[in-house]
Design goal:
Blueprint (H helix, E strand, L loop, with lengths): L3 E9 L6 H10 L4 E3 L12 E3 L12 H5 L3 H17 L10 E6 L5 H14 L8 H5 L3 H10 L5 E2 L7 H14 L5 E8 L4 H9 L28 E9 H6 L6 E10 L12 H13 L7 E4 L6 H14 L7 E4 L2 H4 L6 H15 L1 E2 L22 E2 L4 E8 L3 E8 L3
Parallel strand pairs: 4-5, 4-6, 9-10, 9-13
Antiparallel strand pairs: 1-7, 1-8, 2-3, 6-7, 8-14, 11-12, 13-14
Helix pairs in contact: 3-6, 7-13, 10-11
Length: 408
């Protein structure tokens, strides 16, 4: 089996539109939550979101190309470009050995809503001929493949909020088993739209807090729902020898991945946590069940059911004393970026490993007695760990977990 390493990373997030800026915000405990400004929120129950600010697609593409892409695809291409530039991979891998594994939980919902308004107000001839290729959920992966001439497999994974963790995991397996030498993997989302916010809000998933500093509250007993976020995360995965031979800077090694399903409910997590626990346990075992302290970047959405179920799953999954497991939810700062969350959180987990700084769970002022692990409350912690794990759980019962460690 091949070893698989990370040689490039890129992000667009509510707390920074590049890796360095995002990491500085995360370590400082700064959140990107505020009043929704993308549309008129009069009459909306949920009025806060974690919006990307200061993003200009023209930094990454020509105006004509930008006009033919939904925002979620623009985010994806931007994050992929950052990762590819950092990796130095362009021109150093055979086109048919470069794959793309990139997804979105929702896809081009902004385009869908916009074109529907045109249809209703002006009739069918008003609908853009680019409507379909802008809206479909595979087009971010397709645009990335076109940009870099990636002629290997191009897979748009869709597993709701586990999307980009599964995308990275599937790319990892493809390289591990010899089907590709390198992959552009991750996910993107841009669902802060009238329909997106209305839909999540009406199913009672979103926080209705009007205080940005006390809205996204993972593992806190005051939590009442998640804050919707947006953005993208991209990783360049590469076969170890391929990376070594071209002199790449290796940031981390992917050493485990597992995907399971609750097969329980369309939105609620299984309360026994058995399947999500199994995903964590399998990813831990594939990593060699290392000794020492483990850091977990939790799914940690701040919904009443998820945080308790995830806490129970972590306890069941790992054989060591629970005090040797350090957990945080960076969604307390980024909001829930849906299909992009897992990739961004994988980037954060790698930075935690490399910099030996564990990001905090901000806002955790009133711990829930049912959530009784060390969630690194309020302040980042300087600490070295033996393994970092990133957990993602999605509607439909999708569970995914990645294991990452420093290169050795």
């Amino acid at each position: 089996m091949n070893r698989v390493v990370v040689t490039g990373m890129g992000v667009v997030t509510p707390v920074g539109n590049d890796v360095e800026t995002m990491w500085e915000s995360i370590v400082a405990g700064q959140h990107g939550i505020g009043t929704i400004t993308k549309f008129d929120i009069t009459g909306y129950k949920a009025t806060l979101a974690a919006q990307v600010s200061g993003f200009d697609p023209l930094d990454y593409m020509e105006k004509a190309e930008a006009r033919r892409q939904d925002l979620y695809s623009q985010f994806a291409v931007a994050a992929a470009e950052q990762a590819m530039l950092q990796s130095g991979l362009s021109g150093k891998v055979a086109q048919d050995r470069l794959m793309v594994c990139y997804g979105s939980g929702i896809g081009g919902i902004f385009t869908f809503e916009n074109e529907h308004v045109k249809l209703i107000s002006g009739g069918p001839r008003r609908v853009s001929p680019f409507f379909i290729p802008m809206m479909i959920g595979n087009i971010a992966a397709g645009n990335i493949a076109i940009r870099y001439g990636a002629k290997g497999s191009c897979l748009p994974v869709v597993t709701a909020c586990a999307t980009s963790t599964d995308a990275i995991g599937q790319a990892y397996r493809a390289i591990k088993h010899g089907y590709a030498d390198a992959a552009i993997a991750g996910g993107s989302e841009a669902a802060i739209t009238p329909m997106g916010v209305s839909g999540f809000s009406n199913m009672m998933a979103l926080s209705t807090s009007d205080d940005p500093d006390a809205a996204s509250l993972p593992f806190d007993k005051r939590r009442s729902g998640f804050i919707i976020g947006e953005g993208a995360g991209s990783l360049i995965l590469e076969e170890y020898e391929h990376a070594i031979n071209r002199g790449a800077d290796i940031m981390a090694e992917v050493v485990g991945y597992a995907s399971t399903c609750d097969a329980y409910h369309i939105t609620a997590p299984s309360p026994d946590g058995e399947s999500s626990s199994r995903a964590i346990s399998l990813a831990f075992q594939e990593a060699g069940s290392p000794k020492g302290t483990i850091y977990i970047n939790a799914h940690g959405t701040g919904t009443p059911l998820n945080d308790v179920a995830e806490t129970n799953a972590i306890k069941m999954a790992l054989p060591m004393n629970s005090h040797d497991v350090l957990v945080s939810s960076t969604k307390s700062m980024t909001g829930h970026m849906l299909g992009a969350a897992g990739a961004v959180e994988a980037v954060i987990s790698i930075l935690a490993l490399r910099n030996e700084i564990l990001p905090p769970t901000i806002g955790l002022n009133e711990p829930d007695p049912q959530c009784d692990l060390d969630y690194i409350p309020l302040l980042a912690r300087k600490m070295s760990v033996s393994l970092a794990m990133s957990v993602s759980l999605g509607f439909g019962g999708h569970n995914a977990c990645l294991s990452l460690r420093k290169i050795s």
